[in-house]
Structure prediction request, 311 residues.
Amino acid sequence: MQIPKTVISNSTNKAVLYMIFGGFTFATMGALTHALGQRIDWIVIAFFRMSLTFVFITAVLFRERKFPFILNNPLLWFRSIVGSVAMLATFYSLTKLPISDVAVVTESRPIWVALLAGFILGETTRSKIWISIVLSIIGVLLIEKPYFEQRNFAVFAALLASVLGAVVMICLRILKEIESKRIVAHFSGTACIISLVCLFIFKKDIIPGIQFDFITIVMLLGVGFFGTIGQLAMTKAFAMGEAPVVATAGFIKVGFSAAYDIIIWKYVFEYSTILGMLLILIASTLIFHSNLSEYSNRLREFLRNSRFPYY
Prediction:
């Protein structure tokens, strides 16, 4: 039975609204993280972000009478560990760079997925994908040029988060038989453990000095709340709508992040930064709106079923 186009259109429209809402909540989480970077260490922020998600998702699973923990799946462990490193890199860069810069660099994940997926699908990477990769790299260089000159390693952290995020997306595609909530529970629990280990090994000097005043606690709760809500909204969006349309709508997060940078931190965008952002957005759009060849269809289906990993 063929599904009427009006039904598809309505579900996609709803998915776009979910994506816009998710973009706003993630931009808000980024803004709170950036502000908290002046108060407490970024690893502490990351730990609280993931611990709140872990508590929420395990409570939901127990309520549904489902055991949340999977211990005997090596690929799931690999996904969780790689995702945890990507998450830590994201939070580090959010505290050191304008949040709009981080948003647009991490949004280049589909570019790296397309490159890696070509090998997995057994296909030669198409010319449009190579063009997208080149445009994305040029865009990153234009955006982050001032920080390269300052030797700000947060630039490499944002790029690392993007590439590792692509690896996670591919792992999720292979793990598609496992319920999403159980994957999130495993990932968030692993991220909490890794965050604590990093805190005690590499940041021993900050632990005695950690002080949680009322504003800091409220902001930390906000990071956890907005991050979790955003993750749920974007997961819902990709489940409901057509991947190319939904993914394109996801770029609204960059707009919300830029608004926070301008309004709160009075950030002034250079022409090179704007051009770099446009190049990355164009590159990502090319991936999702390429010609409907057999490879393009398979790649788009691959991306759709990867359940994008938002932190």
